[in-house]
């Protein structure tokens, strides 16, 4: 039997690769559960390094990502509660333990590749960020759906991109594809060019309002910028007072002015009983019902009227 040289070379190559990968991430093979147990033991032993960051940088300083920490807020030694003023790297990554002994023990790792679940990762951050501003986090759908703080935030960087108006929309829509589609439609809030962002209306950490809105209700959210729609009006239009998103999709629409559908259909969802409201609109669009703005040709004060004779929202 002849052993082919190429086989030997291949064998050596896999051996090298294999041993390299063992050395690269020694806990690669651990299940999430075992990793969690290992970290718990490590925390209970609490063997933090004596030299803090210096001991980590002995091995990690060639990694540009690691070093970028010092360009950002978490790499500064003030204020007093900042990581660098205390346990330093280990404030987030957990105690060194025997990690430096040939990389024997794992550290807390963050992000998509991490084997730790979102809740465990987040608890590290919440240890310091437990101010009232984060109160709504626990009941937020982001938390309940296991979104991690670091799905949005970067730590080892000079400027966290999610805190930047010019990149926050991109980060949000990387998960919320439907909203991305909507905001690029014919009419939308000016989000395509980042003049407006998701957090003009939403709190990414959750809120007391519905849909994680900044204000308690949809309407209060809209009134912040569209104050004239608040009224009070002599003649109100009920659905307007109730919920702007009955007729508008705040993220965008193929119809003009963010409308979910066009008149007359928009109106006929509710006004179908009888009379002219239920009139079938002629195809040729030659009269006041079919042409121009359809029902709005006459009922132009759709958000309410202050005219003494405006009860039918015509003036
Ligand atoms: C003796 C060398 C050595 C020391 C000292 C050391 N590490 Fe590591 N560390 C490694 C090796 C090797 C790996 C696995 C390869 C890699 O991801 O760079 C690793 C991996 C990591 C990872 C996981 C990276 C990932 O993507 O999964 C983190 C986090 C980490 N180290 C943090 C620290 C911290 C914090 C300290 C100081 C408290 C520290 N290390 C000290 C050698 C060391
Ligand atoms: C405030 C928490 C925090 C502190 C302090 C911190 N890290 Fe990290 N570290 C993270 C997060 C979160 C990530 C994931 C990448 C990111 O968000 O920037 C990370 C990623 C890493 C990685 C993996 C980098 C890679 O190439 O993917 C290493 C290694 C690491 N940190 C080491 C360190 C060392 C060494 C220090 C101290 C000099 C340190 N970290 C301080 C939170 C922290
Ligand atoms: C040891 C305490 C500590 C830990 C752990 C910690 N932080 Fe911080 N963080 C701080 C301090 C201190 C500041 C600066 C606050 C200030 O200046 O008011 C800060 C600031 C921030 C900011 C604002 C950044 C900016 O550019 O203004 C964000 C976002 C943040 N942290 C996210 C996180 C995330 C995500 C984690 C977990 C991976 C985390 N932090 C872990 C202490 C911590
Ligand atoms: C869905 C994305 C997202 C998630 C998940 C997220 N954040 Fe934020 N965070 C943001 C955005 C966007 C801002 C900027 C808010 C602003 O400018 O009003 C911010 C701001 C912050 C700030 C600085 C301002 C403040 O409110 O004090 C801190 C600290 C912070 N986040 C911590 C966290 C922590 C801790 C977690 C996890 C428990 C987390 N964030 C989860 C998107 C997110
Ligand atoms: C890592 C993926 C991810 C990122 C990034 C992300 N989200 Fe989410 N978001 C989710 C998931 C998962 C849910 C819950 C399921 C759903 O409603 O789609 C959710 C739900 C929401 C909801 C509905 C809340 C409710 O209570 O009904 C809003 C609003 C939201 N996200 C806004 C944002 C904003 C704003 C950003 C950017 C600052 C953002 N998301 C970034 C994954 C993400
Ligand atoms: C002008 C205010 C406004 C802006 C800007 C905005 N939203 Fe919304 N969003 C709302 C309102 C209002 C609702 C509730 C809609 C409802 O009740 O039908 C909502 C609902 C949501 C929901 C819940 C599911 C759904 O589609 O109804 C998600 C997810 C969401 N928004 C994500 C985002 C993201 C991501 C961005 C940024 C790209 C964003 N929103 C920008 C007002 C806004
Ligand atoms: C942060 C400010 C802000 C908030 C909050 C806000 N809007 Fe707007 N809205 C704008 C801006 C800016 C425009 C664009 C004005 C322009 O193009 O002249 C706009 C335009 C509109 C338009 C007309 C779009 C068009 O194509 O002509 C509608 C309809 C609208 N908003 C509805 C809403 C509704 C409904 C809400 C609440 C869910 C809301 N807005 C919340 C700022 C806001
Ligand atoms: C019954 C359906 C309906 C409801 C509910 C409604 N709108 Fe409208 N809205 C319309 C229609 C139809 C137009 C288009 C008017 C036109 O083309 O003359 C419009 C246009 C707009 C415009 C752009 C033109 C203008 O008048 O400034 C804004 C802004 C707006 N609505 C905001 C709101 C806000 C804020 C709310 C909640 C307080 C709301 N709308 C509730 C039907 C509605
Ligand atoms: C979500 C349901 C709904 C939608 C959509 C809706 N309306 Fe209304 N509208 C009502 C309700 C409820 C009232 C008040 C009760 C009533 O008198 O019928 C009302 C009242 C009116 C009135 C005054 C009626 C009166 O008898 O005083 C007019 C005119 C009117 N709507 C026109 C429109 C037009 C035009 C549209 C489309 C742009 C529209 N509505 C869309 C629910 C709706
Ligand atoms: C040519 C002008 C005109 C157009 C177009 C028009 N309306 Fe009217 N509408 C009126 C007038 C005038 C009244 C008041 C009738 C009265 O006082 O008896 C009225 C009354 C109403 C009322 C109050 C109840 C009733 O029947 O008296 C509703 C609801 C209504 N219109 C809905 C609609 C809807 C929905 C459309 C579109 C399909 C529409 N209108 C199109 C002129 C118009």
From TrEMBL:
SUPFAM superfamilies: Multiheme cytochromes. Keywords: Signal. Pfam families: Cytochrom_c_NrfB-like (PF22678), Paired_CXXCH_1 (PF09699). One of its GO terms (molecular function) is oxidoreductase activity. Residues 190-230, 237-274 form the Doubled CXXCH motif domain. The keyword Metal-binding does not apply. Residues 89-163 form the Cytochrome c-type protein NrfB-like domain. The keyword Magnesium does not apply. This is Cytochrome c family protein. It comes from Shewanella sediminis (strain HAW-EB3). The lineage of its organism: Bacteria, Pseudomonadati, Pseudomonadota, Gammaproteobacteria, Alteromonadales.
């Amino acid at each position: 039997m002849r052993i082919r040289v190429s086989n030997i070379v291949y064998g050596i190559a896999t051996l090298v690769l294999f041993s390299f990968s063992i050395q690269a991430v020694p806990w690669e093979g651990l299940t999430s559960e075992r990793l969690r147990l290992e970290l718990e033991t490590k925390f209970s032993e609490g063997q933090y390094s004596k030299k803090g960051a210096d001991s980590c940088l002995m091995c990690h300083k060639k990694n540009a990502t690691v070093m970028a920490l010092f360009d950002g807020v978490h790499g500064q030694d003030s204020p007093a509660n900042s990581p660098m003023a205390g346990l330093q790297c280990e404030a987030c990554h957990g105690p060194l333990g025997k990690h430096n002994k040939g990389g024997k023990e794992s550290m807390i790792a963050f992000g998509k590749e991490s084997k730790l679940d979102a809740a465990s990762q987040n608890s590290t951050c919440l240890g310091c960020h437990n101010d009232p501003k984060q109160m709504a986090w626990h009941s937020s759908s982001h938390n309940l759906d296991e979104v991690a703080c670091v799905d949005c935030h970067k730590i080892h960087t000079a400027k966290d991109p999610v805190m930047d108006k010019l990149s926050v929309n991109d980060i949000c829509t990387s998960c919320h594809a439907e909203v991305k589609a909507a905001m690029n439609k014919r009419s939308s809030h000016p989000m395509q060019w980042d003049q407006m962002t998701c957090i003009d209306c939403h709190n990414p950490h959750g809120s007391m309002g519905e849909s994680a809105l900044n204000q308690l209700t949809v309407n209060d959210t809209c009134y912040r910028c569209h104050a004239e729609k608040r009224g009070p009006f002599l003649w109100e239009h009920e659905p307007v007072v109730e919920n702007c998103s009955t007729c508008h999709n705040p993220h965008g629409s193929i119809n003009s002015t963010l409308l979910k559908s066009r008149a007359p259909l928009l109106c006929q969802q509710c006004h179908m009983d009888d009379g002219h409201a239920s009139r079938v609109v002629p195809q040729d669009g030659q009269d006041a019902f079919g042409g121009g703005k359809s029902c709005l040709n006459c009922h132009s004060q759709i958000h309410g009227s202050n005219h003494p004779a405006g009860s039918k929202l015509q003036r």
